[in-house]
Write a structure and sequence with these properties.
The chain contains 15 helices and five strands. It is mostly helical and 408 residues long. The chain folds into two domains: 150 residues, P-loop containing nucleotide triphosphate hydrolases (Rossmann fold, 3-Layer(aba) Sandwich); 157 residues, Four Helix Bundle (Hemerythrin (Met), subunit A) (Up-down Bundle), CATH 1.20.120. α10 runs antiparallel to α14, α11 runs antiparallel to α13 and α14 packs antiparallel against α15. It starts with a helix and ends with a helix. Pfam families: Dynamin_M (PF01031), Dynamin_N (PF00350).
Amino acid sequence: LLMFLTEYAEFLHCKGKKFTDFDEVRQEIEVETDRVTGMNKGISSVPINLRIYSPHVLSLTLIDLPGITKVPVGDQPPDIEQQIRDMIMQFISRENCLILAVTPANTDLANSDALKLAKEVDPQGLRTIGVITKLDLMDEGTDAREVLENKLLPLRRGYIGVVNRSQKDIDGKKDIKAALLAERKFFLSHPSYRHMADRMGTPYLQKVLNQQLTNHIRDTLPAFRSKLQSQLLSIEHEVEVYKNFRPEDPTRKTKALLQMVQQFSVDFEKRIEGSGDQVDTLELSGGAKINRIFHERFPFELVKMEFNEKELRREISYAIKNIHGIRQVLQVTGLFTPDMAFEAIVKKQIVKLKGPCLKSVDLVMQELINTVKKCTKKLATYPRLCEETERIVAGYIREREEKTKDQV
């Protein structure tokens, strides 16, 4: 019972050591930060894991991320802003976490980096909670009432205002209890916030976070359970397949090679037929692109061909006269065009189709090669097999291309 009533903290990097003095906890955080990032304001994506046990706190997991740094200082690299941004996105992109978008009240909410990043990964605002700090530092005559009432830039989960200890309070050893009392007094006495005092402050934020995180976990748990079960079934199937696996058995190596080649063949066929399990939503590819080449690109190239009806009629006339020779003076031309004249004119027109046909063959061949490359990505763990498969299949496609061009 005494263990549950005593407040203490544990660090993951100091296993077995319990900290009961929270000034020592603060010092340990500073020491570990300097050890990981250096002594001059460096950064690292490696987290410092701290677990606090207390009868006065709720069960929450918080990840404290750095604010966006625009200009590097100390030992920070030139691309510090991008590094911090990437670090933040790494955490807030996870669908199973809530985002606390913290913004000072004495800055323009429209310029909030926190809200901007949250909007990128959570455009519907399903996981974002706004937190407004430094309410006590706003200019006289101004307040954040519209923001806290969720009227200025509305969020689905709304905003909560808090008043934290100032640096002077921290240096003066002002404890948390006194800070919470001062925060409560601020909201109760401020004319713009006292009507919403019960929905403001750190204790209320703590309670809301606990409740909403619990609800969020409850909503996402079924999907995670289903995903884990499907992964478990897949792994169990692999275990069954490889239970009696002997790496040096040549028959197994041959069988594995044949299976991979057969799978490549199936993948290639599915991409051409459009029956694959993965659908590209960014561009046309495989059979769909080849279909487009034949039914849209090829007719378009034909339409672009120059056609002069007057010139064609003149050529037909000359061809007919040349076929009749001197006989055209002695007899009237027949009703039907002579076969030789017809063939001469048609052959000349068909030759014009050669260019569009060859162009279409090139486009189809290129798409087939791209499809082969996409299918061989699954063989990436076997570079030699991947390279040889791509070389052989691409070589066959090019061979067929040459024969097709000869026929054209």
